[in-house]
Design brief:
Blueprint lengths: L28 H14 L6 H14 L3 E5 L2 H11 L4 E6 L5 H8 L2 E6 L10 H8 L4 E5 L8 H11 L3 E4 L7 E2 L2 E2 L6 E5 L12 E5 L2 H10 L21 H11 L2 H18 L6 E3 L15 E3 L1 H4 L3 H10 L28 H9 E2 L9 H16 L1 H8 L1
Parallel strand pairs: 2-3, 2-4, 4-5, 5-8
Antiparallel strand pairs: 1-9, 6-7, 8-9, 10-11, 11-12
The structure holds pyridoxal-5'-phosphate.
The site of pyridoxal-5'-phosphate has 14 residues, from helix 3 and helix 4.
Amino acid sequence: MTIALPAVLGGAPAFAEPLPLVRPTISDIPGLARRLEQILGSGMLTNGRVVRELEDAVAQRCDVEHVVAVANCTSGLMLTLLALGAAGRVVVPSFTFAASAHAIVWAGGEPSFAEVDRMTLTLDTGDAASLADEANAITATHVHGAPCDVDGLTAVAESAGIPLVFDAAHALGSMRAGRPVGGFGTAEVFSMSPTKVAVAGEGGLVTTNNAELAHAIRLGRDYGNPGNYDCQFPGLSARMSELHAAVGLASLAGLDERIVHRNDLVTTFKDRAAGVPGMTYQQVRKEDVSTFKDLTLIIDPESFGLCANDLGRALAAEQIDSRRYYYPPVHRQQAYAHLPQHRKLPVTDEIADRVLTPPLYSHMTHAQIRAVADAVVAIHKHAPAVRDALG
Ligand SMILES: *Cc1c(COP(=O)(O)O)cnc(C)c1O
């Protein structure tokens, strides 16, 4: 293959039209439109049977007893932690989306930031163990869809006698050692917001095998009102509407095929960019399946020749969108600047400095991802000149 001149050095951009980071995939829009019309005509816009149908479908695919649909993942995490009485310290990785930590604060707790494993980028089991005795709960994110060390974290939570909640925002369809994500820990919470792999417009799903917890979340999404307006606790208005549930159901159709395609796209990228020094990837254990909600590149500036941020700027000139998922890490964000930072998180800091997420979505083509990989290779080959041009 010939190495093109990067656009920042005057070459033609890799894409004539901007390549977005993500695009939601909805395969049967006419079918969905008919369903939405039925819902609108029924007069039942919330608390109806479409939400129950979505909950049942997810319970079946995740092999879990209870599913409670909510307005979004963040409110699902808030209600779960509130119901578990997790006020006090809650262990959470700093390398995650900020909502993982925000939910703890809204539930009356305080995040106790922990390290991630540098290979899987998920919560480091040993570091979580060192914080667990002083915590009321552990939360862990299946980052980019790669399952956490579920067994190790379960053992840590059990020995500390505290609940374990997975932020499974990215992981609807992920598998851990042959079992679907959704039935692990005390509860798992999914997101169906537009950047995820299964989308409802906006939406979240709490999955659990604990009937009492499921009941508390059902009340909690409805103000804490058991039906007689004698509210049992200050709940939220966090129901999923029937319309969103219909979009979510439509998006569940074909989810497994989309995940296979995303995994194939990732393989194509890695093959095409093989041999580029200083570029590595998040690892998914060989017995696990990731949704690859994101493909994240880990860039070592020394051997790649550019830092992740500059690679992102050079890709922008190629009309290729990218994000720093997750930079800055949550413990370094303004929202948490007031917390005593008594612990250093060197692995998190290093990983966060090095990550860059290029586009990946379910109806992306192999030709598109090859062109992204070729652009990364070309930018690397011309790294010194690119660095000078970026200033
Ligand atoms: C998207 C996301 C959330 C928030 O999901 P919403 O449904 O938008 O509330 C929480 N955690 C992680 C890791 C996410 O990526």
